[in-house]
Design brief:
Elements: H1 12-23, H2 28-37, H3 42-57, H4 64-72, E1 77-83, E2 86-94, E3 101-107, E4 113-120, H5 142-148, E5 153-155, E6 162-169, E7 172-179, E8 182-188, E9 191-192
Antiparallel strand pairs: 1-2, 2-3, 3-4, 5-6, 6-7, 7-8, 8-9
């Protein structure tokens, strides 16, 4: 079991509870099992989410990038990234709940955060995605689904932490929905698919 976050400090454990709070909108059973692995109660999760929202909305906030550094500590890696004509930095932090993933923050030269989501860790094997049956909850990231089923059409998410992709898989229209970049569910022919759960770690 992963140790629960120490009282009084908002650190990586508390941040994972915030991620799970949003994922529970789609996958309450997976989010609850992960919360229990963290050794945290529902009350602790609610408090973590409340404190995170207070930090995000605080008028004294030093900015999103400084907030992530304060909460998650020094990044595991920092690398230059070019997106179109724009230069940015990609910062990666480990996420103990998902050992094969990293929390990625893309920041511009002025420190402004452009994107924040879960990605596959460098060198970690990704899932084999060939058809709708392979799109299991929590098994793939936005980038992996976009590459496997290109061309895809980005769609507006239903909340700031959500993304959606529309594409065809084996001739069937699909819409994949993500929270913090991690796959939550897939609609095939407009109906939610019911695949098995994610791989066990």
């Amino acid at each position: 079991m992963t140790a629960s976050p120490p009282p009084g400090r908002f650190g990586p454990g508390s941040f994972q509870l915030v991620l799970l709070r949003r994922m529970a909108d789609f996958r309450p059973e997976l989010a609850e099992a992960a919360r229990l692995r963290l050794g945290a109660s529902l009350a602790e999760q609610r408090e973590a989410n409340k404190r995170w929202q207070a930090m995000v909305r605080s008028p004294r906030s030093r900015g999103a990038l400084a907030r992530y550094r304060s909460v998650l500590g020094p990044p595991e890696s920092v690398s230059a990234r070019t997106i179109g004509d724009l230069e940015c930095e990609a910062l990666l932090w480990p996420v103990p709940l998902w050992p094969d993933l990293r929390f990625e923050v893309l920041a511009g030269p002025d420190g402004a955060v452009w994107n924040e989501w879960l990605v596959r860790a460098p060198g970690a094997p990704g899932p084999v995605l060939e058809g709708p049956q392979d799109l299991r909850p929590w098994s793939a990231t936005v980038d992996e689904v976009a590459r496997a089923f290109a061309p895809v059409r980005p769609m507006e998410g239903t909340a700031p932490t959500r993304w959606r992709l529309a594409f065809a898989a084996r001739g069937r229209p699909c819409v994949a929905e993500f929270t913090y970049g991690l796959l939550q569910r897939v609609l095939v022919d407009g109906v939610e698919a019911d695949p098995p759960g994610p791989p066990q770690h």
